[in-house]
Amino acid sequence: MDLVNFRVGEKYIALNILDILVTERYQEDLTTIPTEDKSFLGVKDYVGTPTPVFDLGLIMNNVVTQQMNADLIDVFAKGEREHVQWFNALEDTLTTGVAFSGEKSHHKCQFGAWYDSFTIDDEDFSSLLKRFDEPHKRLHGLADRLIGLKNANQLDEALKLFEVERAGTFVQLKRLFDDAQLQVTESYKPIIVYTTVDGRTPYIGLLVDSVEDSVNIDDGEIKSLSKIMETGFKLNEQTQKMLNGIVKINNKYSLIIDSTAIFDKDD
To answer: Which residue, 2, 33, 4, is CA-closest to 206?
Structure first.
């Protein structure tokens, strides 16, 4: 069986290549129609055929990918503000003697707690996240180091080191926060996958985040729904209706779906 693998949020889904008519970049140019189905985005005219388009991210993850991305961008924006305030508080302590109010542990600040627990199955983004580790840890380590110098009557030395770190570690960390927000924004380039039943006309469109790869698999490699549930997958009712099985592609599990089961035919 030939499959095309797609990314949808943190999940991978696969469609039989025979069920795919064509793909195109999503332009947000759909005609909306009132409906209670939140996954329904609207209708797109494809070669004279009005085709309903559904948000597969909402179906698979119970949240649209755009919202997931917006939440992630907010984490980095807040993290940047948090550490600007932290650095300013350290400067106030050195220059005015006011007690330092910032969190000294890089594990316990709000961003640090999120950073330690967050995982993502994206090599490029994971690589960027790893770059936060050293400057973030170094920045928080400045508090005890510089306050210790001040308390040892070495204020001039503490202020000189503070300025060095302002131009180095602090700027580096701020750039990483900006880079992370930019990468999340620019990496989201969703496409519509037009499915087909007869191989000629579109059936429905599915909004996905990206095309991953095309693969050929043996039927024996596909695991059943019962096997999927044993591995700990949590699937909503609509997803279970669509699911034909699960297969391991490039060391990652991908859900094989049947686009004709996205809604009840009686509806």
So the answer is: 4
